[in-house]
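Incident log, structure service

09:12 report received: a user says their structure output differs between two submissions of the same chain.
09:20 pulled the input from the user's history:
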Amino acid sequence: MKIRRNSERGYIPHSRLGEDNFESYRSFSFEGYQDTKYDCWGPIRTINDDRAQPGFITSHHEHVGLDILSYVVRGQVHHKDNLGNELQAQEGQVQWMSCGTGIWHTEGNTSDKPNRYLQIWIMPNKIAPVWQPKYELITRPAGFAKLPLQLQNTELEVWAGNLDCYMDIVNSYLLVLEGSIRVGDTILTEGDSIDTEGDYVTVEPIGTPHLLLFELHYN
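09:34 re-ran on a clean worker, output below:
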């Protein structure tokens, strides 16, 4: 088991566009943050914990050959793409872009309150994948549950929500979004993460923490 504290994540105090109304905490190397010790976790290429102030909008850009999740923790995220989708994803919802041959989109915060959302890039477990792009907005189930996704990486499951009981994990990456958990004698809080390899680890919730879990099942 490897524990990484929130203070060890990459921190970008301004956006790649040079704006002052956007900041990001990064679990893995991405644009303004590079660390060879944290390039990815299995098929997870990117976990960007983004916080945007009102008025922040990205430029129109393309993604190809990835499953991309935008997990809204707080506030709302405006999304518009070349498939004809334009909407506001709300707290408790997850945007799923199955990019395939390509999706062009823009996103941002068009509300009057700050938001917080995670950008998660997932690589497929196929060689030279080609598939038709699609977009889906998912409302995550109550409690702590598996997200209803059919990812191009068939070995990965994504779980999320508020945990209210003990949980054993293995071959997993767990990120604390809100609240606290106990693992053995160690307490983890917002932004802390656990990387497990082979051995089972028991997670004890303190209250009902909000967690995000990636679990690999090798075929």
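09:41 both user submissions now match this output. Likely a transient worker issue. Closing.
09:42 reviewer note: The longest strand covers residues 201-216. The two ends are 22 Å apart (CA to CA).
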